[in-house]
Amino acid sequence: MNAVLAVAADYANVASDGKLNIMGIFQELIPQGFPSAVPQMYLVISWDAGPAEFGSQKKVAITYIGPDSDPEVSLDAAIQVPEAVRPGERAVFHQIFGIQGLPIVRSGPHAIYILSGGEEKARIPLYVRKPLTLTGEEVEQNG
Amino acid sequence: MVKMVEKEASAGDAVKVRENQVAVTGVTGVHVESHVFELRPKASAIHSETFTRGVFEDALDKASRPVKGKYADMLPSSEEFIEDKRREIELEDRLS
């Protein structure tokens, strides 16, 4: 099973006709200060699996790692590989994680690692910028 | 050990949705939901529109503050975006 698409986004859903909608894909976060949290984000993964894997259960692990390489948050889920829409084809299916409160405690390079069966299948880099600070001139302009 | 959850919902004739149980470790205060969307065999084409303007604007409101994506600040609001696009189209029509 392979991850053919993996992104972090502001919103995602799947329409009734099977189309995957993703809005606001991002690779950077701009907190207002530390500690902070992402109030709502979506992690979207499109999986692709071959006929030998149809019907099997897979462990999916998501690990959010900061600049010091220590896992900050880990998610574990189990999924069942569906069959392909048509015989002879590979199955493509979408997994959407709705995540509330992802912590942001420091700036620098972060990443979300996606693993299946203990192997890394995709990596989503997320760079956390330093909080924005206003200059004296900007403070005057903004009151 | 995370168990499979047999909670299924139909998102339409062409799609089956499974809700997954998710175990969160490392911090408290993180809430996660996971859904797997799979196409049903012999899927029929349904052209209903579920990604509506309301969904779009709700998502903007939920995701914009206090943390934004890289390009989120380029769209102050969907109204302004739509107005900008309308102006661009009018300008292109005048030039062509």
What does this protein structure show overall?
The complex is a heterodimer of chains A (143) and B (96). With 143 residues, chain A is mainly beta. Helix content of chain A is 4%, strand content 59%. Chain A has one helix spanning 136-141; strands at 2-14, 20-25, 28-29, 36-38, 41-49, 57-65, 71-80, 91-100, 102-104, 108-116, 119-128. In chain A, the strands form three sheets. In chain A, strands 3-11-10-6-7 form a five-stranded mixed beta sheet, with no helix packed on it. A four-stranded antiparallel beta sheet of chain A has the order 2-1-5-8, with no helix packed on it. With 96 residues, chain B is α+β, with helices and mostly antiparallel strands. Helices cover 30% and strands 23% of the residues of chain B. Chain B has two helices and four strands. A three-stranded antiparallel beta sheet of chain B has the order 1-2-4, with no helix packed on it. In chain B, a hairpin with a 4-residue loop joins strand 1 and strand 2. The radius of gyration of chain B is 20 Å and the shape is elongated. Strand 7 of chain A pairs antiparallel with strand 3 of chain B.
Total count of helical runs of at least 4 residues of chain B = 2
Biggest sheet statistics of chain A:
5 strands, mixed
Indicate the percent of residues in helices of chain A: under 10%
Assign the structural class of chain B, choosing from mainly alpha, mainly beta, alpha/beta, alpha+beta, or little secondary structure: alpha+beta
* H/E element sequence of chain B: EEEEHH
Mean pLDDT of chain B: 71
- Proportion of residues in β-strands of chain A: over 45%
- The strand count of chain A comes to 11
> What share of residues are in beta strands of chain B?
15-25%
Biggest beta-sheet profile of chain B: 3 strands, antiparallel
